[in-house]
Amino acid sequence: MLKKKMLFVYNPMAGKEQIKNKLSDILQTFSEAGFIITIVSTEQKGDARKIIEEYGADYEYVVCSGGDGTMNEAAAGLMQLEKRPVCGYIPAGTVNDFASSLKIPKLMKRAAKLITEGTIFHCDLGGFNQDYFTYVAGFGAFTEVSYQTPQEWKNALGKVAYFAEAIKHVSEIKPHHMRIVYDNDEVIEGEFILGLISNSVSVAGYRAYEKKNIKMDDGLFEVMLIRELKNPLEIQMVLNALMTKRLDAEQIVRFRSQKIHIVAEDEVQWTLDGEDGGFCKEVRMQNYQRALPIICAQEAIAKVSMQPL
Predict the structure, then answer these.
(1) Most exposed of 22, 98, 248, 309 (fewest Cβ within 10 Å)?
(2) What is the DSSP string of 206-260?
(3) Is the CB of residue 286 less than 8 Å from the CB of residue 130?
(4) In order of start, what are the domains of the chain with their CATH numbers?
(5) How many angstroms separate the Cα of 203 from the Cα of each of 30, 40, 85, 136, 192?
(6) pLDDT tops 70 at residue 152
(7) Are residues 30 and 112 in contact, defined by beta-carbon separation less than 8 angstroms?
């Protein structure tokens, strides 16, 4: 049997450091499937990207294990390679939105088994100035406000509680005046307290678009913006829209686009896949269609792909 070369990069600190107890099972799964494995552990932020940029071209498969931030770094590293190896992902973080959208198993051994048996899906990838994101770039309520979500909210509503609690604290959220230009020179201008530019059915564990027939290889971002909320009625309308997932409040702006150009009057703090994306007054985003070859279950691809199987 012809052996396949795999670069396995993992973050030992992701989540609750659970990979330390699963590493032997994961490697055995890969070995039994005929892989020759090179194992590298990250030590600090940015390591996964650097390792894959430097060594990834020598391998047929590049597999990463960690949270969404580790997956983000792996994708960014792969984007620097002229010929991209097949990517595998073993989620080990606390939320794992990207894995959730692609229905990659949360159990690490099952995720490893999927890498040996699954189907390659060519997934869109987002460009953000000189950086990249796999599933979401965001600003506003979730990056600039500190708040506590009551446990009873979490129990009753799940991750939507985080959205609801953030909106409840709008007095602490600084609105940003922005001019947003997207495909066909459409322009939106105003004061915004939140923005999510995503290629995912799940953001912060909140499955906002699960009934919207979102495709992750159509070359389009899903964009949701929330305008400044000026009174309790507007706050309640947005809360209701988020909790019912109808997203039909007047203060919520939604559209799809392949390219987005945002200019703000002040420095805006961004997050990329849940990690710090820095402060920017001007942002250019581009959807790189089908840029990331990643292994998923065939039944998951049937739901998130516009391509016939």
Answers:
(1) 309
(2) B-TTTTTT--TTSS-EEEEEEEPP-SHHHHHHHHHHHHHT----TTEEEEEESEE
(3) no
(4) 4-117 (3.40.50.10330), 133-289 (2.60.200.40)
(5) 30, 29, 27, 7, 18
(6) no
(7) yes
Q: What are the backbone dihedrals phi and psi of residue 163, each rounded to the nearest 5 degrees, phi first? A: -60, -50
The C-alpha atoms of residue 154 and residue 163 are separated, in whole angstroms, by 11
SS3 119: strand
Query: Cα separation of 309 and 286, whole Å?
Result: 26
- CA-based nearest residue to 203, from 138, 257, 250: 138
What is the DSSP annotation of 198-212?
ESSS-BTTB-TTTTT
- Mutual orientation of helices 68-78 and 47-55 as an angle, nearest 10°? 30
Residue with tokens 């703000």: 264
3-state helix, strand, coil in the chain (%, to 5): 30, 35, 30
Model-level pTM?
0.87
